[in-house]
Amino acid sequence: MKPARIAAPFICGAALFFFLAQPAGAAESVGSCVVEKIEEIGGPEELEAIVEAGHAEGASSEAKEALVDVEDKLEKECIEAPSLIIPEINEVIWGGGAFLVLLAAMIKWGFPLVRNTMEARTERIRTDLQAAQAARTEAENTQKQLAAELAESKANAAKIVEQARQEALVLSANMQVKAEADIAEMRQRAAGEIEAARTRALADLQADVAEIVVGAASRVVERNLDVNSQRQLIDEYIASVGRQ
Amino acid sequence: MADDLITSYARSLVGMAEAEGAVSVVEREMAQVAAAFNASEELRTALTDATLPAARRQQVAEDLLGGQASRVTTAFVSMVIAAGRAGELGAIADRIVQMGAEQRGHTLAEVRTAVALDADQQQRLASALSKATGRDIELKVVVDPSVLGGVVTQIGDQIIDGSVRTRLHQLREAF
């Protein structure tokens, strides 16, 4: 509903209140009331005459009654204050009229509007409650699902950890076996290399010794091979060839 | 190719020697020339030095051979030097000796010794080798000091090694 239609009855009520309302009865001053009442009595001279007649020594009962009537009239109608509970009649009329107008306006527009608003609010609250209930249910389901997934995840994690632990154990064992094999191979290779180096060194040593010995022998032979030795060697060769 | 060249030179010299009726002399002289050529580094350098004029190198050879070798041998050596083939003189001489032996129906045996063999030793060695191989052996003696002592004989692909050098080598191998 548009805000203008909602505000219309309140604006009409306010206009009636300000333009049609009249001052309450208590608004008439005591002085003006007294003046008015004095005029009704016949003017100040007449009032003064009634007062003097009523207070005069040996005044008649009529004069006293007239004085009492004037005093009552002024006292009751001008001095005596209006009732604190019962409003003036014109206020009752204006207030009642305004109330009726306002009531009619409220019945016509206000109450349906309030009812519609309340119903809409109720519906909205119901919808919100249903949505909240659905959200709560969904949240609970989600929580349950998350809890289940968390439990499954924990189980999977534990399974993975256990599997990793087993694989690590197997890997460790394999690595240990491989390391031992590598060490054995390295040890064997090192032993082979040491043996080869020893053999090589021994061969080199033997070669060096042979070279030294043969070199010494060659020098000795060369020094000792004189002509006779050469002839003897040649003769031995000829003899050996002849025996073949 | 080089083998064919050496054989051609050898045949030409043998032809010249046959024409002059001095085959055996030329063979012996060429064997001596080859021995001297192989034994002397200085001689090889002098005869094969391309920086020297060919005439100068021919003069060196003729001075060395003059009066000691036949005219055929001297002329042939001079001709080989002039042809720039002095480096093949040893091989040509060996081929001449081999061809001469083959013409006589003999098998050439190259005998290396540290000292020269006298005629008696050569005769006894040729007889022993002929007996051992069953062929008529003709010796080509090469003095090779690296033999140290004893004799090394090569007949074709067969080697009969009785040198001190080989014995020392065997001694070295035995260690």
Low-confidence stretches of chain B: none
Mean pLDDT level of chain A: 83
Q: How many alpha or pi helices of chain A?
A: 6
Global outline of chain B: globular
Query: What's the total number of strands of chain A?
Result: 0
Overall SS class of chain B: alpha+beta
Order of helices and strands of chain B: HHHHHHEHEEEH
- Coarse morphology of chain A: rod-shaped
Strand order of the largest sheet of chain B: 2-1-3-4
Radius of gyration of chain A: 71 Å
Please give the oligomerization state of what you see.
heterodimer
What's the CATH topology label of the largest domain in chain B? Peroxidase, domain 1
Largest sheet of chain B: 4 strands, mixed
Overall CATH class of the largest domain in chain B = Mainly Alpha
Q: List the uncertain runs of chain A.
A: 22-27
Looking at this protein, list some descriptive labels.
heterodimer; A: 244 residues; mainly alpha; 6 helices; 88% helix; 0% strand; B: 175 residues; alpha+beta; Peroxidase, domain 1; 2 domains; four-stranded mixed β-sheet; globular
Q: Which helices and strands occur, and which strands form pairs?
A:
The complex is a heterodimer of chains A (244) and B (175).
Chain A: H1 3-20, H2 30-41, H3 44-55, H4 61-79, H5 89-224, H6 227-243
Helix pairs in contact in A: 1-5, 2-4, 3-4
Chain B: H1 2-20, H2 23-39, H3 41-48, H4 54-65, H5 71-82, H6 89-103, E1 107-113, H7 119-133, E2 137-143, E3 150-155, E4 158-163, H8 164-174
Parallel strand pairs in B: 1-2
Antiparallel strand pairs in B: 1-3, 3-4
Helix pairs in contact in B: 1-2, 1-5, 1-6, 2-6, 4-5
